[in-house]
Here is the input.
Amino acid sequence: MLIGAGTILIPEQAREAVGAGARFLVSPCVLPEVIDAARELEVMMIPGAFTPTEIYNAWSLGVDIVKIFPAVRFGPEYLRAIRGPLPHIPIMPTSDVDASNVGEWFRAGAVAVGAVSSVLDPDLIRNGDWEALTKRAREFIAAVHAAR
Here is the structure.
C-alpha cells in the first residue's frame, strides 16, 4: 500500500505529511512552492488543475501526475478532449469516479483515478460501518481490474 496526503496547500504541510510517512502529496491547485517542497522531499506530487493552461503549467513545473479537479463538471469527455493536445501529460481524475464509471475514465486516457467519497463514504466511516466500506472498496477494485 502506498500512503499519501491530500489538500496540501503550504510547504510545511508537505514536510509534516512526509514526516508522518506520506509517499505522495496531492493538492487542489498548482502551487509552485508545494511542488518544490515535494521535489526536495523526493515524493510524488499530484496537483489539481482544470484548464489546459493549468495542466500544462503544472507539468512544466515537474509534477508526476496532474489531477483534473473538479472532474465531475464535464466527465470523461473532458479528459478525452484534453488528452488530444496534451497526450504526454499523465492525468488523473479525482471526482465523480466510482465503480460504475471507472472504466470510462480509463478509456478516456486516465493513468490513474482518485475515488475518495465514492469509496470512503464519510457517513459510513462516522457510523463505523466497516462491512459496507469493505464492500465498496472491493467493488471499486474489481471495477478497476475489469477496466484495465
